[in-house]
Design goal:
Elements (H helix, E strand, L loop, with lengths): L15 H10 L6 H22 L28 E8 L10 E5 L26 H8 L3 E6 L33 H8 L5 E5 L6 H7 L2 E4 L20 E5 L2 H11 L32 E5 L10 H13 L6 E5 L7 H19 L13 H14 L5 H17 L2 H20 L5 E5 L15 H6 L9 H6 L3 E9 L2 E9 L4 H13 L3
Parallel strand pairs: 2-3, 2-4, 7-8, 7-9
Antiparallel strand pairs: 1-3, 4-6, 5-6, 5-10, 9-11, 10-11
């Protein structure tokens, strides 16, 4: 008989004690004999896992060579907006040739460290490029690095990243918004031409508003999310950020479109368009803009912000657009719906599910799932208060209330979308303040747990809704208060980014 050397199996058979623990965890009461019998039943099935492990890993392609880059020093990174600097050159020709683009540090770039703003992920280096990275490079762009973001992106401000706060370029003592904080700062400062941020509740639009640039959350599914850290596939978006509308449209052209089934959120009929064509016009005489009543009446709305945004919208009438008032009362329930869905999603998909969850046919990064799993098992205490709070509540709601509120919130989102679609039968674009109040100062040292949690999410009251409905939403600077930018959010019909960009460009042409 041939000698077969020992090889350590990837999956071990659980011990008797572990098997008993598993049964107790799911509420099954077994005798000692039953525990042993169920353990024996696992043997053959575990053999399947060990056979699968022998097969090759399926991952995303890496088409362009690169060096690993470096973490910049404080002198080179005074606003703490960079996480990592690299210089990956793309194709010799393309619409992004000559443009430098930075990626939020939740988007995988092969061979480049990725920590998603968190100590828990530090040390992970993906072996693949996210689809948007490949598309930027295919379009001739240069990937200039990774931008710092908030810890696990569970924050709308810029003081929770593991590597320290990101400073507002207009006033260094104030928040730069979040969670795509570094992206907005680097674009605003001119260190890059464009950025790709992530947006689950407002994380492209909030920092763009605070830093005075353009930030677009596209229609849900238009831009593939393949290869990025996820919170929940029903609210995950990647979107372009730029100093002007043309560059925003150009970047969207490069990254939009179907991803051959790798992104579960996409319908095969999704196609990108030449969005820059929408900018070729002289007037907005066929455009009606609706001022959303509820967007100006949040509990934390400031009158000075409302007045500035209303003044900005009246300027658009110089381009012959029509401005009218509209109302969607359910808009004020958007944050409640998102939070009922989001807390369980943070527990199930983002943390326990390794940012990929289960139950879909899209791409799964095994290396990222392993990195997340190992991190939260060994370093859960290093998570920031907002993540700890969300995780505990998510676990509680799932186990004590069976996940029914997650399900109800997901069902209600269809009603919320339908209410806005009714309004879009009468108007082309809906407008409101991106953030209802002025940009706050960065959190003070020694802040309490409650302060860190509450102040990290109170600026999402207008943005949450459109992650739920999926409508495209863009922020553009409406002006300044006390030297800090104030964003105006424009929302469009599903897959009608062209009209949204057209209106934003018209306003931009007025010189703000």
């Amino acid at each position: 008989m041939a000698h077969v050397p020992y090889s350590s199996p990837p999956v071990r058979l659980p011990s008797i004690n572990k098997t008993k623990e598993l049964s107790q965890r799911i509420g099954i009461d077994l005798s000692e004999e039953e525990v042993a019998e169920y353990r024996d039943l696992m043997k053959d099935i575990i053999g399947c896992y060990n056979e699968i492990e022998k097969l090759p890993e399926i991952t995303l392609p890496v088409k362009y060579p690169r060096l690993p880059g470096y973490r910049p020093t404080a002198e080179e990174n005074p606003l703490n907006a960079w996480y990592w600097k690299i210089n990956i050159s793309g194709a010799p020709k393309g619409i992004l040739r000559g443009k430098r683009i930075v990626m939020k540090d939740t988007i995988a770039v092969s061979g480049v460290p990725m920590m998603g703003g968190s100590w828990v992920m530090e040390g992970y280096v993906p072996e693949f490029d996210a689809t948007v990275v490949t598309r930027v490079l295919d379009a001739g762009g240069t990937v200039a690095g990774k931008a710092l973001c908030e810890d696990w992106c569970v924050s709308g401000v810029s003081f929770l990243a593991a590597k320290g706060p990101t400073l507002n370029p207009h006033n260094n003592s104030h928040s730069a918004g979040g969670s795509s904080s570094g992206c907005a700062v680097l674009v605003a400062k001119g260190e890059v031409d464009m950025a790709i941020g992530g947006d689950q509740g407002g994380s492209v639009r909030l920092p763009a508003s605070c830093c005075g640039i353009i930030g677009l959350k596209p229609t849900h599914g238009l831009v593939p999310y393949t290869g990025a850290q996820a919170l929940d596939p029903t609210v995950d978006h990647l979107g372009p950020m730029a100093r002007n509308v043309k560059d925003c449209a150009l970047l969207l052209e490069a990254i939009a479109g179907y991803d051959d089934g790798l992104d579960q959120r996409q319908n095969p009929t999704i196609v990108g368009e030449k969005y820059t064509d929408a900018l070729k016009f002289k007037t907005l005489d066929n455009i009606t803009i609706g001022l959303l009543k509820e967007g100006f009446e949040q509990d934390n709305s400031e009158q000075v912000v409302n007045e500035l945004v209303r003044t900005a919208l009246q300027k658009i009438t110089k381009m012959k657009a029509t401005v009218t008032d509209v109302s969607v009362p359910l808009h004020k329930q958007g944050p409640n719906m998102w939070l009922c869905m989001g807390h369980q999603a943070i527990a199930d998909t983002m943390l326990r599910g390794g940012c990929f969850g289960s139950g879909h046919k899209g791409f799964y990064s095994i290396s990222m799932m392993d990195a997340v799993g190992r991190g939260i098992q060994s370093q859960a205490d290093d998570l920031p208060p907002p993540v700890k709070s969300a995780w505990m509540l998510g676990e509680y709601m799932k186990h004590e209330y069976r996940g029914r509120f997650y399900g109800k919130a997901q069902n209600l989102r269809r009603l919320l979308r339908a209410e806005f679609d009714k309004v879009f039968q009468e108007v082309d674009v809906i407008a409101m303040p991106t953030i209802p109040f002025r940009t706050p100062e960065l959190q003070r040292k020694g802040a309490s747990i409650s302060e860190l949690v509450n102040n990290g999410g109170n600026n999402l009251t207008n943005t949450f809704t459109f992650n739920l409905t999926g409508h495209p939403a863009l922020t553009i600077n409406a002006g300044f208060i006390d030297g800090l930018p104030v964003g105006m959010m424009l929302v469009g019909r599903m897959f009608d980014e062209k009209t949204l960009l057209k209106v934003a460009h018209g306003y931009e042409q007025l010189g703000q």
